[in-house]
Design brief:
The chain has 342 residues and is mostly helical. It is built from 13 helices and four strands. Helix 1 packs antiparallel against helix 6 and helix 10 crosses helix 11.
Amino acid sequence: MKFNSAWAGFIAVLIAGLVVLFAVPQIVSLFGIVQMTVFVAMAMYALSQGFLWGFGGIMCFGQASFLGLGAYAYAITAINLGDTSWGMLAGVAVPAIFALLLGYFMFYGRISDAYIGVITLTVSVILFQLINSTSGAQYHIGQAELGGFNGIPSVPTLNMPGDVSNVLSPTGIWYVSMALLIIVYALLRLALASRFGRVVIAIRENETRAMLLGYDARLYKLLSFTISAAIAGLAGCIYDNWGGFISPTIFGLAMSAEVIIFVLVGGLGTLIGPILGGVGLQYVMNLAGTQHKVDPNLGLGVVLVAFVLLVPQGVVPVIRDKAMQLFIRRGAKAARIQETSP
């Protein structure tokens, strides 16, 4: 691999992530660590949408479907099997398999991009209504009662693999969650630098040309869709461990809308942008939730409109472009000084 500014930025992000991973427990209170865990969950969730939309060119209006499926799969599996390691695997596998089946019919059925957005949104609404109507002891999977609108309380916390009695503390959950976010970011960055990633981006830019070159656009879209769903499911597992509770509201339209705003604010077409957008806006929403004068969702809508009108590229691309312009100016200035010097 040729070392360039892009890889330098990648390494810088990894170093910054490791610093945050180990520094937060040293400088933040226990309550703060718990709050930071939900920031990681939302960052992972935003990263799943950012990869699918920004690089795969697929606009999914129902990303909350995969977040919710991952959260419910984790909770149900952990309650039935006891070992949350299996819950984590189920939380990733179930939304991935669901996306694989749904995506097969969408992409191989040659459904247009507009209808893909409608279908994914409809699926999210259907799942919300389905889970919401499971109130009563008769609705259960094994020992796990679905609980309808009341959800599933007392979701088991992560334990050490194979040792159910060794339950992780909030600090331990932070280490696992943040480490997973760093790993997922690194794997996506490497995947995008590989042949697979170059083909995915080529299909986003011009699907017809990519197909004429011999690439199966349907297959690559399906793989991107499945990977995105698996990442969203992993975010759902982390979300479970933050609150210890899960309800059908995770499938709601608000959750699907929030992640779109996270990506737009952070910067479409980047990986670090959605992460920063998810963390920043979730922090603002938490602050807004402590007051009762302004509805947090209304404030989030105002933020969306403001960024679409004023900063349509998102925060990270704007900062990157400004830094590049500054670097070019300084380079040009240094060159002129060198030319005029005796």
